[in-house]
């Protein structure tokens, strides 16, 4: 018998082909986009942009795998994987980066530092007062 209380549920969200969203999108778990999203995206898990997916705006996530198109600012806390079919136009800030041959990237890239830093020691001492 499996112990269901010891297994953390993984949350997945999907925006399919033919769906268009404008505005602010926030996801606690993983997010896959095969449709069109314009606006701000904040994903606490893995963001996957499928080959038909298109994003325009500011994107923040833990990890990302891009096969489609992105225009704007991309902030990835851990690994950003840009696949051969991807087209990115904008600025990237990530800790680690993997780019396949034939991928298109136009913009700037800042990497090596955590994108979303943890609280500093000063912040923690200020909260105790």
How do the strands and helices of this protein lay out in sequence?
Layout (H helix, E strand, L loop, with lengths): L11 E4 L4 E8 L2 E4 L2 E14 L4 E13 L2 E14 L4 E13 L4 E8 L9 H8 L1
Parallel strand pairs: 1-3, 2-4, 3-4, 4-5, 5-6, 6-7, 7-8
Question: Could you explain how this protein is built, in words?
Answer:
The protein is mainly β and 129 residues long. The chain has one domain. Helices cover 6% and strands 60% of the residues. The chain has one helix and eight strands. The chain has one helix spanning 121-128; strands at residues 12-15, 20-27, 30-33, 36-49, 54-66, 69-82, 87-99, 104-111. Strands 1, 2, 3, 4, 5, 6, 7 and 8 form an eight-stranded parallel beta sheet that branches. The longest helix has 8 residues, at 121-128. The termini are far apart.
The coarse silhouette is globular
Please summarize the sheet with the most strands. 8 strands, parallel
Q: Separation of termini?
A: 48 Å
Radius of gyration: 16 Å
Average pLDDT reading: 85
Series of secondary-structure elements, N-terminal to C-terminal: EEEEEEEEH
- Percent of residues in β-strands: over 45%
The secondary-structure class comes to mainly beta
Question: How many discrete structural domains?
Answer: 1
Count the beta strands: 8
Poorly predicted parts = 1-8, 117-129
Tally the helices.
1
**Estimated helix fraction:** under 10%
Short note summarizing the structure:
By secondary structure, the chain is mainly beta.
């Amino acid at each position: 018998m499996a112990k269901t209380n010891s297994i953390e549920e993984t949350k997945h969200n999907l925006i399919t082909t033919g769906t268009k969203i404008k505005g602010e999108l926030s996801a606690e778990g993983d997010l896959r986009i095969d449709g069109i999203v314009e606006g701000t995206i904040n994903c606490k898990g893995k963001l996957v942009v499928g080959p038909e997916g298109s994003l325009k705006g500011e994107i923040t996530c833990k990890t990302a795998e891009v096969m489609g198109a992105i225009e704007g600012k991309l902030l990835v806390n851990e690994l950003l994987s840009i696949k051969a079919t991807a087209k990115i136009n904008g600025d990237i800030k990530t800790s680690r980066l993997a780019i396949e041959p034939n991928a298109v990237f136009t913009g700037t890239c800042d990497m090596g530092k955590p994108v979303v830093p943890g609280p500093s020691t000063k912040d923690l001492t200020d909260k105790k007062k």
